[in-house]
Amino acid sequence: MAILTEQHLAEQDLPTKSGSMIVPVILSGGSGTRLWPMSRASFPKQLWPLLSEKSLLQETALRARKLTPAAPVIVCNEEHRFLIAEQLREAGIESSRILLEPVGRNSAPAIAAAALLVAETDPDAVLWLMAADAAMLKPDALVAALQSAVAGAEQGKVVTFGMKPTRPETGYGYIEVGSALPDVEGVFSVRAFREKPDAKQAEEFLKAGDYLWNSGMFVFRADVLIREMEEHAPDVMAGVRAAYAARRGDLFFQRLGGEEFRRIPDISIDYAIAERSSNIAVVPADLGWSDVGSWDALWDISPKDADGNVGIGDVLIEDAKNCYVRSDKYLTAVAGVEGVVVVATDDAVLVTHRDRAQDVKKIVDRLKKEKRPEAATHNRCYRPWGFYESLIQNDRFQVKRIVVQPGEKLSLQKHFHRAEHWVVVGGVALVTRDDDKVLVRENESIYLPLGCIHRMENPGKIPLTLIEVQTGSYLGEDDIVRIEDTYNRA
Any idea where the MannoseP isomerase/GMP-like beta-helix domain is (predicted)? Predict the structure, then answer.
């Protein structure tokens, strides 16, 4: 098969012998806790612009679109569905198919559900599976690697990408490479999958030369993946079939059956298939790949100054070396240190040594144990209509800034424990208050007494910004009784 240039591939689909298209499948279910305080369950790392002006999800989807015109399949959890749909729209990817997981069940059920979706119309389709939160600094090298993987997949193999290691990394699993496959250039058998090693084992793997980092990126035919799942993880596949059969449309999403999906075992594709099947192959590749799994990994792949420092946002770095300093809001200054990570958000600050970057997960675990909201949520909370952020909070009052995008509206709702006062500071609000509809303009306000049925919407062409003052005995977000909702939320 002749090697095509990336420009050529942008103009036509990567050829397959069957004539089927290559369908990108992007998994976006992780929470990225080792990149706390930026990455949290409510807004995980794949949704952040960590390496460019685009988020990791957008970078992944655009990378796929360069090599195949097929609409991508995105598998994500329900909480992030509107964020993901909006980010894809911003990136110019309008025709994606988004499958919603009711709960996280690791990668194997998500992949199997995507395979069932594609197989409905084209069981011979070649699926290109990738995580939404990985970086690839050498995308040009992907063309040849993907061609080899597709050729192996067309012969019925489940093909993974093994990344050539550049250091004795203990944070990745490894693949031991076997012999070359006949008649498929660049594809090899797999001797074994290895768990994340200790430092000594990682050194041995690097010296041996026949071990690769396990990227978690696969290429396979839809029917082959289904058959492999039925053979090696039949209980998982049966559960996925039941959840898929019970799926229902929800706006422009496909929601898998909740009760059925919750009964599926939690298992990765590595444990379900890769470590059990004799039908696995690997393509060794040097793609500048990183799973962006820690602040140290992000420092490693980010552009640096002459002293090895990475500075992002309003930061000052004086007489420091090999540091990663990031601030999303406040001026953050470091001096006289080496190899540290400093990350400041509007509600938390992290300081750690780069060598201890993996320990950030322990901090998140402690925050969860202490039931601190900073473990999972940011001060800015995104909703399908826009976002809100708390400015001041006390026992009996809270002040928020609310931004509603043009044409969007909040749910029709009421509260049992609080009253609200809205002051419009930008744009125009159309407010429903019981039986009345009131147009509230900039520098005008409206009062919503406790128990009042109300709704806010933005009928204008620019974002609506308002200040909300809540007063009452209980100010939690669960004191919302939704009477009607455009976005089908409970």
Answer: 319-367
